[in-house]
Amino acid sequence: MAFADAVDRIIAGNRVYSKLAAEQDPNHFVELSKGQAPEVLWIGCADSRIPETTVCHSKPGELFVHRNIANCVHADDINAASVVEYAVAHLKVQKVVVCGHTKCGGANAALGDADLGTTLNTWLHPVRELRRKHKAELEKLPDDDARAVRVAELNVHQSIDVLKHHPAIKKAMNDRGLSIHGLIYDLGAGELRLLEEAGGRKSNGLWSPAL
């Protein structure tokens, strides 16, 4: 069975990983088991092509992660809210990152109103509303690929706006300088692009407006 083969590959891969990690550092797993102190909360897309620890060249324990379809943060999503509260109020992360990406299936689906099923229709409704709100801007872009990238950017900004109203984030921003950052991952180039820094300032030569 294909499913059994896939699971077998995962288990075999884990054995290779654990063996190599232990050979490189015999205390690696002992130290990880003592607890975690990540500096960054990463909110990204569930897309299988963008594993955050891989694309960021990060180690286990460095990123606290929440992923979903199209990296959305909705005001009424208790799943995302609980992750944010734990990461910010209890783990005391210093940065929150929202990362969208090119070739995003969710952003592309939001360009139209095709029936994706009740759950996905509901989940992507705020992103489709962004498309409607920015219709004039999007229509000036050359093709659907460019429009999907712009929708992905707008969606990152919208998610950041929601995050800034989360009580734990508001408190951490005021008390200890927590900052929120928007990124887009270019799937075709394997590179991250900074969209926004809280407070609005230039970064990597790009103007980063405050929200």
Q: Any key phrases for this structure?
A:
single chain; 211 residues; alpha/beta; Beta-carbonic Anhydrase, Chain A; 2 domains; 5-stranded mixed sheet; 16% strand; disordered C terminus
Description of the structure:
Strands 2-1-3-4-5 form a five-stranded mixed beta sheet. It is built from nine helices and five strands; from the N terminus they run ααβαβαβαααααββ. The longest helix has 23 residues, at 2-24. By secondary structure, it is α/β, with parallel strands linked by helices. It folds into two domains: 1-35, no CATH class; 36-197, Beta-carbonic Anhydrase, Chain A. The radius of gyration is 19 Å and the shape is globular. It has helices at residues 2-24, 28-32, 52-55, 78-90, 105-109, 118-133, 135-139, 144-163, 167-176; strands spanning 40-45, 63-68, 95-101, 179-186, 191-197. Helix 4 (78-90) packs parallel to helix 9. The model is unreliable at 198-211 (pLDDT under 50).
Any idea of the CATH class of the largest domain?
Alpha Beta
Structural class, from secondary structure content?
alpha/beta
Number of separate domains:
2
From N to C, what is the helix and strand string? HHEHEHEHHHHHEE
Q: Please give the alpha-carbon distance between the first and last residues.
A: 50 Å
Looking at the structure, the CATH topology of the largest domain is Beta-carbonic Anhydrase, Chain A
Radius of gyration: 19 Å
Tell me what portion of residues adopts beta-strand conformation. 15-25%
| Average pLDDT, all residues | 92
Query: What is the count of β-strands?
Result: 5
Largest sheet at a glance?
5 strands, mixed
Counted by DSSP, the helix tally is: 9
Which of globular, elongated, flat, extended, rod-shaped describes the shape? Answer: globular
Strand order of the largest sheet: 2-1-3-4-5
